């Protein structure tokens, strides 16, 4: 994976363990984003989550939320996602958060095999995306991330590696979106050690990325919408061309091939004018003439039969 540089946007992640935070001091220290713990397991909600979200947003930081996973089954993962969604809702809802929700999956207390780990992760990610309408991202240690298969690589990675060396590639990822590079940072406005993070681009790029994520958009979805729009426009052009060809509104000049049929129809009273006729009307008249049904004698005989 890539390394980090001084151009990367700087951020932190916190929980109630960091105590009361002076968020204005954090912002003045050059930090532009924060991930805040919201919940854990199926019932626990961080008691400082709502206050931290409010304080960080008021200080101008981009804010996101994370859930610490302990599930041993897919069903438990769905329940944990519900707890996470409830915590987010209590703090203003997913629309009030700037950054995507995060699945913090870094331990395996139940000793699941790789297949079990991926089933649990997928169940949580699918459910939280359904309930928040936001595509989540995955936080994990560089070593634990080796458990995730390529199918989960379509979720962005927030990797933990406390080292100056870049994280190593794993099956699911060859690049990180966020990197937690220290757990012993010193940050203005916070007492004690703080987790330090960087985004894979500049502050401007982070804001643009966050805006796209908050709209629920990714490159694949945008491409699909653009392709659908092209199909719709092509169909509209075909319909317009067909309407023009058939002159569905009528009032078109008599085409040369239908002149004799129209004259025959006028002569026997089958039509009184040609000002409201479309191509389909002229075709019908031509067919009647071809069948001999616009001949005056034939018309007279038909009328006599109808009496």
Give the SSE layout.
Elements: E1 10-14, H1 23-28, E2 33-40, E3 44-45, H2 49-58, E4 62-68, H3 74-90, E5 102-104, H4 114-132, E6 137-141, E7 157-160, E8 178-185, E9 194-199, H5 203-214, H6 219-246, H7 259-268, H8 279-290, H9 296-306
Parallel strand pairs: 1-2, 2-4, 4-5, 5-6, 6-7, 7-8
Antiparallel strand pairs: 1-9, 2-3, 8-9
Helix pairs in contact: 3-4, 7-8
Characterize the structure shown.
By secondary structure, the chain is an alpha/beta fold. The protein folds into two domains: 10-217, TIM Barrel (Alpha-Beta Barrel), CATH 3.20.20.80; 256-306, no CATH class. It has nine helices and nine strands. The chain has helices at 23-28, 49-58, 74-90, 114-132, 203-214, 219-246, 259-268, 279-290, 296-306; strands at residues 10-14, 33-40, 44-45, 62-68, 102-104, 137-141, 157-160, 178-185, 194-199. The chain has an eight-stranded mixed barrel, surrounded by four helices. Helix 4 links the parallel strand 5 and strand 6. Helix 3 (74-90) packs parallel to helix 4 (114-132) and helix 7 packs across helix 8. The longest helix is centred in the C-terminal third of the chain and has 28 residues, at 219-246. The chain is elongated and about 110 Å long. 35% of the residues are buried. The model has no long low-confidence stretch (mean pLDDT 91).
Key terms:
single chain, 307 residues, alpha/beta, TIM Barrel, 2 domains
Q: Count up the helices.
A: 9
Order of helices and strands: EHEEHEHEHEEEEHHHHH
Number of domain units:
2
CATH topology name of the largest domain:
TIM Barrel
Which architecture of the largest domain does the CATH hierarchy give at level 2?
Answer: Alpha-Beta Barrel
Q: Give me the CATH superfamily of the largest domain.
A: Glycosidases
Number of strands: 9
Secondary-structure class: alpha/beta
């Amino acid at each position: 994976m890539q390394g980090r540089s001084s151009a990367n946007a700087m951020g932190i992640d916190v929980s109630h363990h960091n105590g009361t935070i002076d968020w204005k001091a954090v912002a003045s220290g050059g930090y532009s984003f924060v991930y805040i713990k919201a919940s854990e397991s199926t019932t626990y909600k961080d008691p400082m989550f709502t206050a931290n979200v409010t304080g960080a947003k008021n200080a101008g930081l981009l804010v996101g939320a994370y859930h610490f996973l302990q599930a041993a089954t897919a069903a438990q993962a769905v329940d944990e996602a519900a707890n996470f969604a409830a915590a987010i809702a209590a703090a203003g809802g997913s629309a009030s958060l700037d950054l995507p929700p995060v699945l913090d999956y870094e331990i395996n207390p139940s000793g699941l095999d790789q297949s079990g780990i991926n089933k649990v992760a997928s169940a949580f990610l699918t459910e939280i995306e359904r309930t928040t309408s936001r595509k989540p991202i995955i936080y994990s240690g560089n070593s634990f991330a080796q458990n995730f298969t390529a199918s989960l690589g379509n979720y962005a990675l927030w990797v933990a590696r406390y080292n100056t060396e870049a994280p190593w590639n794993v099956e699911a990822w060859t690049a990180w979106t966020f990197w937690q590079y220290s757990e012993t940072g010193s940050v203005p406005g916070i007492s004690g050690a703080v987790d330090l993070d960087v985004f894979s681009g500049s502050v401007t790029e982070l804001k643009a990325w966050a805006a796209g994520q908050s709209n629920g958009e990714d490159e694949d979805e945008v491409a699909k919408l653009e392709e659908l729009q092209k199909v719709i426009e092509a169909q509209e052009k075909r319909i317009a061309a067909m309407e023009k060809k058939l002159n569905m509104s009528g009032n078109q000049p008599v085409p040369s091939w239908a002149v004799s049929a129209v004259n025959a129809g006028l002569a026997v009273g089958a039509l009184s004018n040609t000002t409201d006729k479309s191509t389909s009307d002229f075709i019908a008249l031509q067919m009647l003439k071809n069948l001999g049904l616009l001949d005056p004698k034939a018309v007279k005989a038909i009328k006599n039969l109808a009496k």
